[in-house]
Structure formats: C-alpha cells, structure tokens
Amino acid sequence: MSSVDVLIVGGGAREHALAWKLRQSGRVGRLYAAPGNPGMAAVADCVPVRVDDLDGLVSLAVEKRVGLVVVGPEAPLAAGLADRLRAAGIVVFGPSAAAARIESSKAYARELMTRAGVPQPEYGRFDEFAAASRYLDRLAEQGAAGAVVKANGLAAGKGAVVCDTLDEARETARAMLVERSFGDAGREVVIEERLEGEEASLLVLTDGERVVPLLPAQDYKRAYDGDRGENTGGMGCYAPAPVITPALLEEALRTIVRPTLRALADDGHPFRGCLYAGLMLTAAGLKVIEFNCRFGDPETEVVLPLLEDDLLDLLLAAATGGLDEASGARWRPGRAVTVVLASGGYPGKYPVGLPISGLDEAAALEGVTVFHAGTAVQDGRTVTAGGRVLAVTGVGPTFASAISRAYAGVDAIQFEGRQYRTDIAARVSAA
Prior knowledge:
It is a single chain. By secondary structure, the chain is an alpha+beta fold. The chain is built from 13 helices and 22 strands. The chain has helices spanning 13-23, 54-64, 74-78, 81-87, 97-104, 106-116, 129-141, 166-177, 246-266, 299-303, 311-320, 359-363, 399-412; strands spanning 4-10, 28-35, 45-46, 68-71, 92-93, 123-126, 147-151, 160-163, 189-193, 198-206, 211-213, 218-219, 222-224, 228-231, 236-239, 273-282, 285-292, 335-342, 368-372, 375-378, 381-384, 388-396. Strands 3-2-1-4-5 form a five-stranded parallel beta sheet, sandwiched between helices. Strands 12-15-18-22-19 form a five-stranded antiparallel beta sheet. The chain has a four-stranded antiparallel beta sheet with strand order 6-9-7-8, with helices on both faces. A hairpin with a 4-residue loop joins β10 (198-206) and β11. α6 (106-116) crosses α9 (246-266) and α7 runs antiparallel to α8. The longest helix has 21 residues, at 246-266. The radius of gyration is 21 Å and the shape is globular.
C-alpha cells in the first residue's frame, strides 16, 4: 500500500505521543508537526506554524500535500480548523467547530445530553451572578454540601472548579461572572451537582456512526499527592483502569457514547475524531462529568504505548467514514503509568528556560518513554518552556512494574524546582 504523509497539529505531550506512535506505522511517509516540540523533532519534521494560525495550517497541509491531518488541541477545532481543512480537500481527524461545541460550550454539552437522555448531574447555566447565587441557595435547601462551577468556554482544562462548600461555589461563581477570572470563557457558567464516586476517562475513535473504544484510563487532576491542591491539566494517569469492567464499558457505550453521537448527528453535526468522555461511577451508575472533543492529555501518553494496531489505519478510517467497529482495536498485554514532571509553582506562576538533564538516560531505561510537553532548545540545550514539562510513561506486565519504571524515568530527569506527584497509580499498584 502507498505511504501517507501526515501533519500533526500541536506541540504538547499528547501530540508527541501521537507522533511517536504514528512513526511506528509502516505506512506513514513524511510526518510533520506544527509547531511540534524538541521531542517530536526526533520523529517528525517540525514546522513553526502556531496552532491558532488557521490560514498557515491550511496552507501547510496543502503545500505538503498531506494525506491526513491530526488535530491535537481543542482550541483550533473550536475555531473551525477541521472545517477549513475539509473545504480545502484535506482529510482530517477531528470534528467540525459545530461538533466541537461539546467541549467548547459546557452549556451546549449539558443540553445535548439532556435531549439524548444521557445520565449526568443536575445543573444550571447562568450569565448573571444573582441568578447563580439563587440557584446555589436552592441547592442548599436541598441539602447539597458542595458544587462544581465551570466556565462555559475553553479554559485550557482548568475551567472546572470542584467546590467543597456552597460558599466556595458562590465565590467561584462571583470570580468568574463578576471579576472575569477566566476572561471570556467565564462570561457564562454552568453550576453542577457535585458527584461522588470514582472517575475514569473513556476515549473512543468514531467516524460519526461507528465507534472503537480505547482502553479506559484514570488520571490525576489535582496538583499534589492525595488529590490536594488546584486542578491542573493532569499530573499523571494509568491504564487500563480496572474500575471500568467490560460490562461497564459496554454500558458506557450504550447509554452515553452512542446516544451522544446520535444527538450530534441529529443536530446536523456528525462527530468524526476522538470523543473523550469523563465519567463518574456513582452509586446510581455511570454519569458524565464532561465531554472533550479530542484526545486527552495525559491519557494519550498512557494509552497509545499499549496499542497493538497501526494508529494510522484507525485514524484514517475514522476520518473517512470507514471505521471497522466489529474488529475494534487490539491491545498489548500489560499496564502503563504516566507521571507528569511539572515546573515549580505550576499550576500558578512558574519559571521557564531551566536546563533539563537526564533525558537520554531516562529514555534508555527498559519500558520507559519520555514525551515532551513544555520544552524548548536554547543554545543547544533542552530547557523548560511550560507548566507541564514532560510526561514519563512506564510500561510493564503489572501496575507495580509500570509504576517502578515510570518513577525510575522520573528519577533520571532533573531540572531546578521540578515537581511531580508520588502517588500515581498507587491505588492499583497490586493489580
């Protein structure tokens, strides 16, 4: 079969993992990344085009005559990059802007789920603080202890604030609606019932009708051990998540994923790409915390190392409407654990430009892969360039071995002020 040239849009650890996996395909020809990162440069040609430069990205795809564009981040999808590429005759893995509203508008997602009968928490949407405050008063009358306040728009994965008390929820709503703490993303907020239970991430590849699930995973959003501190973009992850049994996976596909895809298609916005369902296993069953319109991060870094199949074949099939649902995806036996190395101070203010050592030593360890998230090259040295700097993934036959390998990789890497959680996958270490 002829080779396919591929362009990956993005420059984080998620995109590095996608590039790393695609490079293993015997069918991938030239592999481009825009803008890419120093880690991706080892497997792809990095082109300095920003993810928000839609004109530049379309021109690049046309100029290079790529056979597939894989869009990593949510922002260009919400801005209509996939629409622009399809209009230019380029095959693209990623939903239209209208379908991407399932992530770019929390209110739209909740209303879509209501129409589809998808299990979810009670919620209200507000663009005025007084109305939000009255809703919280009603929650108090119903005996609620806390709530979740979400900026309606995109907020780099940090727009959902889990509040332990209703007073905290009220102050969070005030900060978003009155003080504009999340800018335009928080001009409208969604206030939700706080669910209790165990969280899990389910990513599925879909061509709008057919679905191929990836391995369920569990991530760690809080900054510090014991789930303390602020929410982050994700501090670690493990897969496959034992909490999502085969029966629960089938339930999630039947009651959540398929009804959501049908509702999107009924709205005239069929979804082609990766649909990410953030799930909560409550006493009343599975409920949806949120949907994302793209591969998760750090879920991608922990799931793809276990994928046996050719990723290019799966992405092309989803992008062109030919996904083989019956065959699904094949997986290697074993377990994977990803630990994120972050800059000191993250998710608050943090320094950049700090030299990183030990990358080659970590990558040489058995079962260890290092994905670059926020790095750059200065004067020939790799330095920090973001809040989340690296994602270190360990793969082994058991969770205990995968944990050991991931943290051996972490120990090999040094930069000033580095921070990371020491409890990633601890809850499943005996599995």
